[in-house]
Amino acid sequence: MKVLTKLLLVGLLLAVVQKITYAQGESAVPFLMVAPDSRAGAMGESGAGLADNSAGIYWNPAGIAFLRGSEVSITHSNWLPQFHLDLFYDYLTYRQYIPEISGSVTSSITYMNYGEFVRTGPDSPTPIGTFRSFDAALTLGYATQLSEDWGLGVNFRVIYSRLSDQPTAEEQGRGVATSVSFDVGGMWRPGKLVLPFLDSDIGKKLSIGLNLSNMGPKMYYIDRAQADPIPTNFRLGFAYQVFSDKYNSLLYTVDFNKLLINKDTASASSQEFYQAMFTSWTNQPFKEELRTFQTSMGLEYWYGEPGDFAFALRTGFFYEDPSYGNRKFLTFGAGVRYDIYGFDFSYLTTSVFPGGENSPLSDTLRFTISIGWGGIVGDTRGLPRGI
Fold first, then answer.
1. How far apart (Å, rounded) are the C-alpha atoms in residues 330 and 347?
2. What is the pLDDT of residue 266?
3. Do 169 and 181 contact (CB within 8 A), yes or no?
4. What are 73-132's pLDDT values in tens digits?
5. Region of poorest pLDDT, from 23-32, 80-89, 221-230, 378-387
6. Mean pLDDT (the chain, rounded)
């Protein structure tokens, strides 16, 4: 079975989603690493220390432990529009606080559409049919406060990847793969914290989160011998409220992100996730391991009263070491809140350094619509000011 040039192009461009050309190499289903929401996307794609809306399912499910009420949101973005392909990405989320279980239940659907492809015969370029290719994931989760200062969140995910719908003439697999994964996140929002070199209490201004995501078995489209790991990921994030008054607030976020995959490029074999979670930290000198981290940071300014009308301006920066992907780009965005409704958008630039790699979302807009009701705007202590 052959497909037209479009399939080859999509395959090459998907590799750009997580361009990893070192020993901690390639993964299956890279769509699971796409920053899904417009708000965090506009803040340099940082959110593990913030996670104060339903998109926290992705960034850090523990952040949802501090929220009350309900929320639903949907994000849409075109994918690689410069190539004029019918690719797009959708992300639907829902969270619901249930007092009887002292926590929130969450769910999300992630869908990456790769468009329609033409199938040709093994010995002829004549089209004999078409098929659609896509990736999808369904996530269910639970988040609860362990104490006033600590939150815990867990997710379980079913992954379905359909790159083709029929086997080739020589291979046994038919281009369809399924797997499962789970996430574990923790969040610390200290009620009081006075550091030796500061005179003021910064506790209610600070939030620290850690998320281990996509822990699960390998996926294969053809046979087990050709299985690839899913993108198990470590993310550490911080959020700090620089200032806040009745109408104004400024928030700073920073994330440090590392892919926990250990793959031997010579033999193309890879370790299971429960092994790579440990060995991917030690298979290079410590100084070199630090270079494998991606760093992202952002600023968010709000004006207005939470719960009434408010608008936000956002910007951020994403950095990846030249030897480990070389993506460096700026992000911008804005948001509006009125009563229970919210609208956000973000824009991601091309590489800001000569020779740098572009993100597949460069020069594109992401849009998010959200509705939150029955709870308090943002953190119950007002740290982040989202829905």
1. 9
2. 54
3. no
4. 999 988 766 665 678 899 999 999 999 999 999 999 999 998 877 776 666 666 766 778
5. 378-387
6. 83
Q: Which residue shows structure tokens 């709000």?
A: 302
Single-letter amino acid code for the residue at 38: S
Q: Is 193 exposed, middle or buried (0-12, 13-18, 19+ CB in 10 A)?
A: middle
Asked if 274 and 229 touch (Cβ cutoff 8 Å), the reply is no
* Domains of the chain and CATH, by start: 2-373 (2.40.160.40)
Please name the residue that has the structure tokens 């609860």: 144
Q: What is the pLDDT of residues 58-79, one digit of tens each?
A: 999 999 999 999 999 999 988 7
Structure tokens belonging to residue 60:
């850090």
Residue 303 and residue 248 in contact, taking contact as beta carbons nearer than 8 Å: yes
Residue type at 25?
Answer: G
Segment 205-220, tens digit of pLDDT: 899 999 999 999 998 8
